[in-house]
Amino acid sequence: MSQQGTVFDIGYQGYSGTREGRGRARRAVFKDGLRTALGFGRGGRAKILPWFFIGLLSAIGSIMALVAGAAERLGGPGTAAKANLPSHVDFYGAASIILFVFAALVAPELLCRDRKEGTIHLYLVRPLTGSDYLAARWLAFLVVMVGAAWLPQWILFLGLAAGDPTPLVYLQKHWLDIPRFLLAGVVMAVYATTLALLTASFTVRRAYAAVFLVGLFTITAPFTAGLASEMQSQAGQWVSMFNLTNIPVHVNDVIFGEFSMVTADAPARLFPAWGRVGWYLLWTVGPGALLWSRYRRLSP
Amino acid sequence: MPAGQPLLTAEHLGKRYGTVVALDDVSFTISDGITGILGENGAGKSTAIKIFMGLLKPTAGKATVLGEDASESLTVRGRVGYMPEHDCLPSQVSAAEFLTHMAEVSGLPPKSARTRAADTLRHTGLFEERYRAIGGYSTGMKQRVKLGQALVHDPAFVFLDEPTAGLDPLGREEMLDLVRKTHRDFGISVLFSSHLMADVERTCDRIIVLQGGRLVHSGEVEQFTKETETVFIEVDSNREALVAALERRGVRVTVDGAGLTLEGPDESVYDLVRDSLVEAEAPLRRMGPRRRALTELFERGAA
Fold first, then answer.
1. B55 lies within 8 A of chain A by CB
2. Local confidence pLDDT in tens for the 303 residues of chain B
3. Closest B-chain CA to A124
4. Which residues of B touch A127 (CB under 8 A)?
5. What is the pLDDT of residues A147-199, one digit of tens each?
6. Per the CB < 8 Å rule, is B84 touching A119?
């Protein structure tokens, strides 16, 4: 026996459920920022860049763990440390340029496209201010950057622990590395996120923002390093402070209480810890304030 | 919001940008229904809408939306919708994803946002195309997505800024039908901004006319239509005699190209034309009602 179904058009139904206002609006923009940064809900091409960089960073962490593990297995406990193989303190220094290029290429996607396509106007007519929008976008990219920074460090930590002949002893001896690399990762992410979004706020073309930032990071590093080595005393130290890729790595050094491979020879390391942290804050809070001022009074 | 209360009120509203006056002492109220806001470019339509959306602070007077001060309340924006004139759609995402996101940004929980997005896409005629990226849509479909994002959170009031801009005649007709449906079937009141009088006349119940930042007219569309309608006639010969006969009967005549534009005291103008044609022995070629050009109306308003 066949059964027949009937489709009824019940017409337009109004909405009488809850309206969660500004809080929901902020969370929605944050969630959209995460999806945009990672390419979710977009075509395949939008996923290539973020996942390439996350994969690359993870590969670096994995290789460091494999090399250290192999050294420990072949040469006995403590070989990796004696051979001065790179570890947690060195990771952010070694990977900083990759983290910054990642930020430079992906962060503009969160701000430039909304302004170029005019979607920003639709956000600002909803229960959301320009500051809310910016804070949600900033936080979304920060989360992505923190994830990209932490993931290889966790791989490295677990790899080193697993590679050690006595994993539990390794954990007991090195557990303090965990809060250190977590904090240093946040430091790296805040710096990269703020500078990348600030640059993106000046143009609607993502390519311009990306090229400018990549150029800034890749040019200032060898230029300031070369110039600082030519100069002596405090002038060289100050020039070295303008190596933009090293600014958060100096704070990483303060957190770990030792110098990383990248900053071990940088004249800026001679500045006291508070000076290096203050310099980092200046380069983070200043651009952050400028970025906020650009979106605070934004209206269509 | 108590029944019968105006949804929008403008009290002596003024807005200046330096020395430029965008709005000057404008007062009106808007109640349930479809209201057209008519004016040329730079008349102050968009400025008025932005003040009502709380995006601009007036330099004088006060604007209230749903009983709340538009420049103070952020929450009221969750109860109004806005369809801008310019491009505002992301090209990479699908209409379903975009409307769901916009519903959430308007304050709806995620599950309700998904349901509302699907419903809205069905009502705006985009349900079959909802999973395609918006970048591949036609202009008409994009206008529907723009309308959809303005309606997706079921607002009490929606501002539509030039919704027929860039549409072909068929698309324009469909959009105007959707605007009428928005109030008739969805129960959402509409403020419809346009510089096309025909669109406003065919869609709206009431009309507000702005010119140079000043209020020129506010009232029922029907009344406005009566006040602004003229009669256009063309004759084969004896035009001068006809003009004289018409003027003797108190009809104002303007020579308009090959024809004559007439303004009579009331609907009896057609009888006066008949009598004048007989008297002047002028063979009639064409006769019919005709709307004045918008610019002409504005010139009259300014005078």
1. yes
2. 555 678 899 999 999 988 888 999 999 999 899 999 988 888 888 889 888 888 888 999 999 998 888 777 788 888 999 999 888 999 989 999 999 999 999 999 999 999 999 999 999 999 888 899 999 999 999 999 999 999 999 999 999 998 998 889 899 999 999 999 999 988 999 998 888 878 888 888 898 988 888 988 888 887 777 767 788 889 888 888 999 998 888 888 888 777 888 876 567 888 888 999 999 898 999 888 776 655 555 555 555
3. B55
4. 74-75, 77-78, 106-107
5. 999 999 999 999 888 877 788 888 898 899 999 999 999 999 999 999 999 99
6. no
Q: Are B89 and A119 inside 8 Å of each other by CB?
A: yes
Are B75 and A117 an interchain contact pair (Cβ–Cβ within 8 Å)? no
Across the interface, whether the CB atoms of A24 and B104 are under 8 A apart is answered yes
- Residue at A151 is within a domain: yes
Q: Confirm or reject contact between A127 and chain B (CB < 8 A).
A: yes
Out of B53, B91, B154, the one facing A117 most closely (by C-beta) is B91
Instruction: Enumerate domains of chain B plus CATH numbers.
Output: 8-212 (3.40.50.300), 226-302 (3.30.70.980)
pLDDT in tens, B248-284: 888 888 887 778 888 765 678 888 889 999 998 989 9
- Any domain includes A274: yes
Tell me the chain A residues in contact with residue B185 when contact means C-beta distances shorter than 8 Å. Answer: 11-12
Min Cα separation B73/chain A (Å) = 9
Pairwise CA distance, residues A300 & B84, whole Å: 10
Of A240, A297, A228, give the one whose Cα is nearest residue A269: A240
Domain contains A7: no
Tell if the CB–CB gap between B112 and A28 is shorter than 8 Å.
Answer: no
The reported pTM is 0.85
Q: Does B25 touch chain A (CB under 8 A)?
A: no
Q: A48 in a domain, yes or no?
A: yes
Question: Would you say the C-alpha torsion B105, B109, B114, B118 has a positive or negative sign?
Answer: negative
Range of the domain at A280: 24-296
Count of structural domains, chain A: 1
Nearest CA in chain B to A11: B185
